[in-house]
User: Fold this.
Amino acid sequence: MTLRIGVIGAGIMGSDHATILHRWISGAEASMIVDIDADRARQLSERVAASWSTDAAELIEDSDAVIIASHDSTHPELVLACLAAGKPVMCEKPLAPTLAEAIEVYQAEQELIAQRGGPGLVSMGFMRRFDPAYVEMKNALHSGSHGPALLLHCVSRTVTSGPGSTSRSSVTNSAIHELDIVPWLLDSPVVEAAWQAPRSSSLAEGLQDPQIILLRTADGVLAAIETFINARYGYDIRCEVVAETGVIALRDSAAITTFSGKSTSTSLAADWRPRFADAYRLELQTWVDALNNGLVSSLPSTADAVRANAVADAVITSMESGGSFVTVPNPFVGSKVGEVNGTS
Amino acid sequence: MTLRIGVIGAGIMGSDHATILHRWISGAEASMIVDIDADRARQLSERVAASWSTDAAELIEDSDAVIIASHDSTHPELVLACLAAGKPVMCEKPLAPTLAEAIEVYQAEQELIAQRGGPGLVSMGFMRRFDPAYVEMKNALHSGSHGPALLLHCVSRTVTSGPGSTSRSSVTNSAIHELDIVPWLLDSPVVEAAWQAPRSSSLAEGLQDPQIILLRTADGVLAAIETFINARYGYDIRCEVVAETGVIALRDSAAITTFSGKSTSTSLAADWRPRFADAYRLELQTWVDALNNGLVSSLPSTADAVRANAVADAVITSMESGGSFVTVPNPFVGSKVGEVNGTS
Amino acid sequence: MTLRIGVIGAGIMGSDHATILHRWISGAEASMIVDIDADRARQLSERVAASWSTDAAELIEDSDAVIIASHDSTHPELVLACLAAGKPVMCEKPLAPTLAEAIEVYQAEQELIAQRGGPGLVSMGFMRRFDPAYVEMKNALHSGSHGPALLLHCVSRTVTSGPGSTSRSSVTNSAIHELDIVPWLLDSPVVEAAWQAPRSSSLAEGLQDPQIILLRTADGVLAAIETFINARYGYDIRCEVVAETGVIALRDSAAITTFSGKSTSTSLAADWRPRFADAYRLELQTWVDALNNGLVSSLPSTADAVRANAVADAVITSMESGGSFVTVPNPFVGSKVGEVNGTS
Amino acid sequence: MTLRIGVIGAGIMGSDHATILHRWISGAEASMIVDIDADRARQLSERVAASWSTDAAELIEDSDAVIIASHDSTHPELVLACLAAGKPVMCEKPLAPTLAEAIEVYQAEQELIAQRGGPGLVSMGFMRRFDPAYVEMKNALHSGSHGPALLLHCVSRTVTSGPGSTSRSSVTNSAIHELDIVPWLLDSPVVEAAWQAPRSSSLAEGLQDPQIILLRTADGVLAAIETFINARYGYDIRCEVVAETGVIALRDSAAITTFSGKSTSTSLAADWRPRFADAYRLELQTWVDALNNGLVSSLPSTADAVRANAVADAVITSMESGGSFVTVPNPFVGSKVGEVNGTS
Assistant:
């Protein structure tokens, strides 16, 4: 059975998802491409042997399932449209630009579940949970060989910030991956967050860059995160868990070493796509397999997305109020479904 | 379009190929499993949602294309049967246990091509050509940044030799990967081979292990290969090209580093499957894509297989005659098609 | 000319210094050993061909120069005695257990300089400034190739805390190395410090361990320091400078790699001596060379020691007051010499 | 007690030895420098606070012990002069340009021992035996944890060959280090040697470069050595021992890692001095300590030097006769002392 998946957004991530579906995924195909730019939609559709449109409603109608990779601001409305049509949807992070909108989508999904039963329809594109290295690290940690975790050091460096980047968007758009992966790795939600910064790089215009984020989980683990979106030298993601009797760290994934010009070197990627190519593929295959087998997807849920947004809100509050620790609000308090604040 | 692929052999490699087809390949499915052991065939067929049989002829009849992963001794006959039925086939290495049989299959394919035109039907499973690290190494070498290649150092270590292993089978079954990859990397055929050995490991029963193989290409590059099939400590494949102004080496591909018990360590696999998981997947996807698009597969051909067998023959001649360099015979001399001894 | 150096303290560091003098240093010898434990003094003296005593005054009288490696609490009195006798002295860190005592010693030295002119007599044993890796890192940073520094990540892990360790002594005795090396690396004094901690390791009795220290320099660089004195797995010191266009990091200094039991590994030391063996030797040779040539030693001064103590005080104030940033007091304000708060 | 050491030769190695004596060695000083070029002798003597001369006889007369670092061709005559004067001497490798001359010196020393008793006076400068990494590797091998050795892989690459280099001098001057270190590591003498080569680098004028040397020890271990003296990219020495259940390898000794321009890199030295700085210092300190304590030096002996020369002869015979294995002659057969061909 070949699942027909419509892809909304023909930019970098939409193109990536459509191409992965077309070339690498078993049991699915990219069936339609939508973009507000008709040329862009058409060009991508030709590369992946799909139809195209500029009308998202047409795509949702036509598809077995939907991938949303359009501008962040469009995510809530499009997810709500998929929910209304009863179509499974994989939404690129973030679920919404603000916590309030994210909660709104979450509640809409909860209402649908209350009405018709069954699992939720929305899966979130936090692809790092499918990266083999993060998965191996989580397994090694929870094997217990090194005792319980105490500290986490994360580094997230990208080459150049996109247009319109701000100190806040550095948190909500880039560090958001760490805000999701830290509680996932540790199996414990983030309860407090603080923000600090050194002097800003002269190459970072209009924003504070780099930044240091501190997270504290319910279990008392402290995570120190560096996010630096104008690091220039390369795309570099690191993570190290310090446990009571041992330490586990992600390792540089270069495939070859070169000896040349008085140095030994390995290459760094210019952006996230080579580093997380496997993660994107495994994420989509996992989602497609769940859909084809009528199972609940193991991708993150809207509740996970809401939690990441709530942590981002606390980080930004700390940023704007002097850097002290700020309690992460329970985003589900007062929600109709009264869900407990656990991580999935 | 979903290609229906029959898999002959439900042992380690057959299971791997069938599972990869079922879970990871776009545009194909494992449609039937054959094994001489009916239970084994049935069990694998259930895991990959295929039918099963003990009759290879039935499978060839039923399938759009065939994968042969049964015992080495059955390869020639099964490939000939696929040729007779006009079915595309991907045969695990080696094409045949002996050079003579390999040439026979090669000639049968050439005759078919002469009769009906078009490309050959047989693709060979030398998966390392699809390993991203080898591919990156080859690209880096041929970028020319480091000048022409002069030397190659290869190491191939496995944990324990299989039952019935001999000094000769260490060449034809294990080192054969290096005999294929060396001329592929260098774009130059092997013209001479020599064999040497130290004292044998006391843990290697009934064979000389490790062995050293020296290959000389038409371009004058020398490759020094260590093959050690009872290395015990782990599966470890290395390759380093020494060029005029720089060196390129494969790098250990571990994803995480562990700090524990006064040491920093990374894991080594127990066998080839984790190390070459990507290579097997990319090999099959490339083959399936070519079949689905009516293109010639970029997998190695029977001519490549014959060449690797011819080099293995020269190595064994050296082994049995004191270790001097032995000229690799041109296996195509006198063949009806008079093909030149170049590498693909 | 062979300088006669007396060593006070025959514990781990005193033994190390005496042995290094005896075996590796050009132009000096260990001439006398003093310890309050006569047996310990005698035994060490025999190993290094020196005389021995239990009387520090006798040693100071007898020696051309003095090394103080006795208990921290004895440092101020012994340094003052050396100053009174006009003998050059190399004092192990810290100069004093408290900032007030350190300032007292600093002022005594300043008065002596005011009276008799010339340079100071006291050199401090912050050996990391002589570690070739830290020196190479500092040179690489100040070469300017990577732009100005923005962030520093430091990790200091030891196997087990000594008897009587407390949350405070973890700062004054272990992290003190980072409190000295950070401003030295950056050529900018520390002006603010903050302290945070995760849950404590169950293996750390009677103290908070690990701890996170944040330092801000006058230049606006932020340093994030992990100090973990019961890390169990090995002695592990790391440092990474993040600059505007590149990053420089210390590298694991293991000399061999072992492949065994399905893993690739390098050894970690059990304590600081193998890691900093070169640093201790170079520190002593540099000190001896300066003395033998009548030059000012390039070892850190009492002013450097006072600065490190002042930063430690700010860290402890933050520890005891909720973790906010605390301004590092200028320890030289109101001092008779009115020295500017620069780093040497 | 300060040993007065005369240094013959003020070129690269003589300058290095004199500087090390002056700056780093406990218990000795560079007392006189001799060079045929008076200016060069004088300039070096000023840097190390020694006297100077152009007359080696004057230096031998004046010194407690002698270091010979002049042109290879002068070694035999100068060592014989030291023997005649009864002065301990440390001679840079090789002991002599030819095996016959080396044997002559060896026999002269044996006669002196026969006459006056006691140990020999000549120590050889094969500094790698004092490199901490090689020593750690040898200890790890002989700890027995990995079973007996089977294979050795050595790589010796330098940036550019010196003037007048030939295919033969690449063996006698560069690979000679491996010809000494292999039997030392394995505790087993080399009994056979063979030589092979790929096409030569276009950057290597007038010689075959790189070369492959195969050595077989009495214990049946096979060592495969690459020597490449125009490797251009950097000074790179590697060694890996393959034992029955594990492998031990030298590790790149860079102190810092740099992340810059889309790559992660470590530096390679331009020549051997930084790589073996510790080895040269430890070699000299060991020699000086033995002399000062009246003990036999643990540096290699003239017998070791003769053995390395004998292996080099066999390699060159193989080079000139088609590449087959050549038996290493027992250089001590017929010598007056009839010494057995073991390694020290």
User: Anything to note?
Assistant: The interface with chain D takes residues 233-234, 236, 252, 254, 259-270 of chain A (CB under 8 Å). The first strand of chain A starts at residue 3 and ends at 8. The radius of gyration of chain A is 20 Å.
